[in-house]
Every structure is written in C-alpha cells, then in structure tokens.
Sequence to fold (438 residues):
Amino acid sequence: MADAPINWPFTPSPLAIDIVGAQGCHLHTRDGRQILDAAGGAMVVNIGHGRREPGEAMARASSAVSYVIPPFVTPQRMALAERLQRDWLPPGFTRLHLSSGGSEAVETAIKLARQYHVAKGNAGRWKVIGRDLSYHGATVATLEVGGHASRRAPIVAMARETPKAPPHYCLRCPLGKTYPTCDVACADEVEAIIEREGPETVAGFIAEPVVGSSGGAFEPPPGYWRKLRAICDRHDVVLIADEVVTGFGRTGVRFASEGEGALPDIIATAKGMSGGYAPIGGTFATDRIAEPLQRTGDAPMFYTFSAHPAACAAADAVLDILSKEDLMARARVMGDKLGARLQRLKQHPNVAEVRGRGLLRAIEIVRDRETLERFPPEANITMKVLQNGLADCVYFYPGGTGAQRDIIVLAPPFVVSDDEIETMCAVLERAIDKAVKA
Fold:
C-alpha cells in the first residue's frame, strides 16, 4: 500500500496557501495571484521580499565555510557582531549570544537571568515573572513565562506556573483603573508580586516593550518602563526586554525599549534581525550581567546552529540595507501614515480600538464598542476576517491569546507604499464588515 501524501503543515490550516515566490510587499501564489503581505509574514519582513543581497551573502558564506561550532570565530560572525555594536545595540550592550530564532533568544535570556544570580551566590533566585496577554516563544520555558492561554494549554501539565503581572491594557484595565489617574498601577503590581513571592526567589522580569500579536500592539503608558527599571533595581531583579517583534526598527526606532527612558539588562530579539532571509536570533546583555558569569567561568550554552555563518551573513546584509537605505526612518514615516489611515476604522461600530507604533499596528474587534462586549469564541471573527482578506488578496496576521481575541495585526515590510497602505486598510474594512455580518 502506498504511503499517504505528506501533510504540510502538521495540521492543515484553513489559511494555508501555496506560495511560489515573493517580491517587495507581495506573495505570489501558484494559481497566479499576488497577495499583499500586510503582516510581513509573522511581523518579520522588513527590507521586503525578493532582495538578492542576503541570498548572495549566504551563498558566499556557505562556499567559504558550511558549519563550525558556535564558539569558533568566522569572518561572518565577526562582521555581524561588529555591525551590531557599531550601528544597532544601545550603549552598554557589549555581550551577545546568537541563536536560531526568537524562542531560543528568549530562553537564553531567561537562563541568563538565572545564571547571573547563581554566579553571585543567590541560588534561590529562579522565578522569572511574566505578564498576562504576552507571548515569548514556543518552548516549554518560554511558554511558562508567557501569558498566551491557548498556546500554554497543551503543556500545562509539564510546565511550572510562574507569576504573572497584569498587562498595560488600558482599554480594559485589569485593575479597573484609568490612565493617567492610575499612576501606572500595573507597573506597581510587578513590585507587589516580587514582594509576595519573596525577592530572594525572583531572578527576572520579562516584558515586550510594545506587546506584539498576543495583545495586539499594546503601547506602554508613559513612565511604565521607568517604574519597572526602578523596581528591578530595588530588588536586584534582571529586567528582560523581549524585542523579538519590535527590534531592528519595527516601531520606528532601533529597539522599542530605547524610547522608554530606561534600558533593560537583557534584550532578546530575532525577526527583523535578518528580515526573514535566514533563521537567527540574538540575546544581548550588559557587562553588569556578564561579569559575575565571567568570574565563575559560566556562560550561556550554545545551540547547534547558533551563529550559523550563512545566517550571520544574511543578517549582516539585511542590517546593511536597513542602514544604507534609511529604512528605519521610512518605518516611522510609513507607520505614521498607516496609523492615520487606520484611524478611520475608529468610527466602525465593531472596532473598539486602533493602537500601535511605527509599522506595528493592531485593531480590536468587538460586538459592541460602547460596552466592549466581545463576540463569542464560536463566532470565529478573527479567522473570518483573515479569510475575507485573503479572498481580496491581502494577508493580515491573527492576534490574541484565546482569552484575548478578535485582534488583527498589521506589520508590513518597511518598503510599503502609500497605495499599498490604502489597499490593505480598505480591504480590512470590507473584511470586518463581512465577518461581523456573517
């Protein structure tokens, strides 16, 4: 008996389409359509699809050296490290660890916070506090610290329950408060958790500076990160910024945390680092975090494909293009245009909020915008919007966590044009209309 045909993906998705090529902001399907990529894939693509430079750099790297273990030095590794320090990393971030993607980068950050305390003789510190409505990766450890209900569900029995702080979700404040009279109480809750758990047990706190798809581009209220920095300093807790989505210009600045007036101790990033041309992630730290490990001879463990030479070469080429073509500035300009065009949707009876920064934007769809009543889960509004968009040749990204739902994310490549912004926003409005009336 012949084998059954292979399934891709593992569980077939109703959104699966057959892509045979891509250029600029468009995906080309086998049946001849051009799909406008309004989400940059998974908030990844920045310099656009189909650039030849990253592929050529990978080919040169692979011809020179296919694989060497991560601790060895190669020209591609050194070129990327030098570019990162020269052009991209905030002041004081002198230590880097490269991996294969965002989940690995965040897991390295979590382990690094623990290793920092062990190296200082504080072996009792192991807890990393996360937040509700967050996502930090697909490994068991990153799902533990994340607040993504539906993705955590299958591994609950094998995962430790770690403390969760409330998110800065001002539309539906979990504390029942209103900004600015709240005095950013959601940040104070982090300190309350540290004190309740016992500072001697807490290694770190992790948060996305601007929450990605799990919440739908939540922006922190002014002063939130400064409060976090002061709280972590008081209790010697390592502050980790998950910039897997927001790093390398997505919000219009190098790293979103830089604009908050208080830098973290560790930054984890991935997606925009190579713009989707190769699997690579990075964990960056200050000397304060690294020095205790150096004294004890400890270091983060590498993954087999950490700092793969071809991936480093691709990332170096992408970061070079971002700088030479000033695409970060373009992300600011086009992000403002996208945000302004999306404002028209604020009048839609089923849109509760439009939010985000730069080219990371999201809308929240509700049954009743006055009461913020959500559609029931079985209405499947997000999937309907995405399917309607694809029928109109535009791809949006599904947001939410299960508990948080009916979130649509837009994160197009930085090379997006005015006409493409108009198209994606017009299609989004039609897609919502069809979904809520179905």
